[in-house]
């Protein structure tokens, strides 16, 4: 057995308090994809990459997006692919930023928005992205009124697995009257109310936020703000939860 398989077998017998690390699932995905120990299995590779991506593995998130984008190993879903490109881009993957820019430029899986496409190309910085910036067309006429951003990950009801110390917040937005910036809010929610965890302004449509070590329920939303206009539009709150490990006997 490969090292990843041996470690996974150990983790599977160690009990629910120990979760399989993202790197292990990613390695299993590579082994299945490349056919290291048997014939290549794209479907199994996708399942492993997805599990690693949900645990916060950036490279796995990019692989999941590419497979959803192409339909290899899984049914093609360009909308879901865009969400995973956003998650990978939030973790600094330049290829994901470039691919997400292409989707916004073409209006595939996300609303067509040349402003957002340009921003993601700039973030990517790859030679191909610089070429796309030079050739980027204005696209459709700009609307008269500002529109609200739409969250795509994590959505209300989503549960992040045990071990997550951060979360990728991803949203979409159609072309606006002018280029926008985004104000992002993240709050920790308890029975007694809520308190601010994170407040930031970004130019991109995805950010990575660090979660506090305590708390299981979080709410987030994003506001689009015109760069010159005294106008803004706020998206709906999204509430997600994080699985926390049960305290050991020594911690009780």
Features:
single chain; 9 strands; 3-stranded antiparallel sheet; 252 residues; alpha+beta; 6-stranded mixed sheet
Helix/strand layout:
Elements: H1 3-13, H2 22-34, H3 42-54, H4 58-70, H5 78-90, H6 94-106, H7 114-124, H8 127-135, E1 150-153, E2 159-160, E3 166-172, E4 180-190, E5 193-202, E6 206-210, E7 217-226, E8 232-234, E9 238-242
Parallel strand pairs: 2-9
Antiparallel strand pairs: 1-3, 3-6, 4-5, 4-7, 7-8, 7-9
Helix pairs in contact: 1-2, 2-3, 3-4, 4-5, 5-6, 6-7, 7-8
Summarize the structure.
The chain is α+β, with helices and mostly antiparallel strands and 252 residues long. The chain has helices at 3-13, 22-34, 42-54, 58-70, 78-90, 94-106, 114-124, 127-135, and strands at residues 150-153, 159-160, 166-172, 180-190, 193-202, 206-210, 217-226, 232-234, 238-242.
Your description of this structure?
With 252 residues, the protein is α+β, with helices and mostly antiparallel strands. The longest helix has 13 residues, at 22-34. It is flat. Helix content is 38%, strand content 23%. Strands 2, 4, 5, 7, 8 and 9 form a 6-stranded mixed beta sheet that branches. A 3-stranded antiparallel beta sheet has the order 1-3-6, covered by helices on one side.
